[in-house]
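Sanity check. The docking grid for FE2/S2 (inorganic) cluster depends on where the pocket ends up, so I'm generating a full predicted complex first rather than guessing from homology. Inputs follow.
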Amino acid sequence: MRAPRHRAELTEVTRGTPMGELLRRYWHPIGLVGDAGEVPHKVRALGEDLILFRDAKGCAGLLHARCCHRGTTLYYGKVEEKGLRCCYHGWLFDTQGHCLEQPCEPQGGLFKDKVRQPWYPLEERYGLIFAYMGPLTKKPVLPRYDCLETMDAGEFVEADDTSLGGGGPAIIPCNWLQHYENIVDPFHVPVLHGSFSGPQFTTMMASMPQVSFETSPRGVLVRSTRRQEDGKVFARVTEAGLPTLRVVPNPRVAEFARVESIGWVLPIDDTSFRIYVAGRVKQQGDIDRMRSKFNGKFWWDMTEEEHQRFPGDYEAQVGQGPITVHSEEHFGQSDRGILMLRRVLQAELEAVAAGRDPIGVSFDREAPSVVFEAGNFMREA
Ligand code: FES
Ligand SMILES: [Fe+2]
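Predicted complex below; grid placement will be based on this.
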């Protein structure tokens, strides 16, 4: 057998790698609004260790964890009115990394203007804190999404940071692309979530769909249709929006409507990721209540044997290994969406390498909200 290989350019996310640089051209959620407070909070994103905090003026900051003086972590720092003070020698940094004080130096620090703690711009929206970790001159506008801007009666937006729809821990120990590709894999639904583990979602989703894949202005779009016994057609549209957006309507099909939530896959590093979700809800905690149960139990309450008997997305995706071995895959007709998504990602890697802006970024503050096609719809035949 040949030596196994994974496609490093599509999966690896650290600074200077092709995908790392593509991902750094977009905003990523790195925490819930409440994560930024007066106690420093650890964040790991795209392979970088960072510290999130909120100064006394209410301004959130995201600094590199290692202090630019002699490298201890700012995790043990103290949040003050003007910024975060390192515990070791007391250098004080504001939310943009400016060094305001060097208390051990003559006159409070004669070279404090010459040092700068690495920092990233933040914006808060939809209950989430978004960071931009790319070149400042290329910083796009943080997009607005119509499905989180336009409310139906009684709705408001709620954010959640623990959601792998099917259950699992907050931090998933495998490469982010394994989850992202799952969005354009509608055929796993009737197998993994339909027959294998009993109908995990709804019987409507358990039958094999007719599927078409297409590229969209934002990524890849999947149309699945299922003819119902009464002759009507259940049409489901899901979208993978670059770079990491999971635009998937409720698989429990509570109502026939436009998509109610967006998930962002945050690559923590090459071999782990987490998901942030923001969605329209009618009651606090609705996103949490959407979590699947298996055999009547939550994922974390199951025994090892129950995980084998009732596997879900976590088992299937983590089961592909820390980074799946791309050189050993065998693609069929049903994998067209995955191949399309990889081609789209590959094209955007090339666009960035050639100095162009990747798809979906906008520098226009007045740009209208992004409207997705995603949703569950019932049509007359
Ligand atoms: S290591 Fe942070 S102030 Fe010295
Ligand atoms: Fe799934």
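Relevant for the grid: The chain has a mean pLDDT of 94.
Also worth noting: The longest helix spans residues 336-353.
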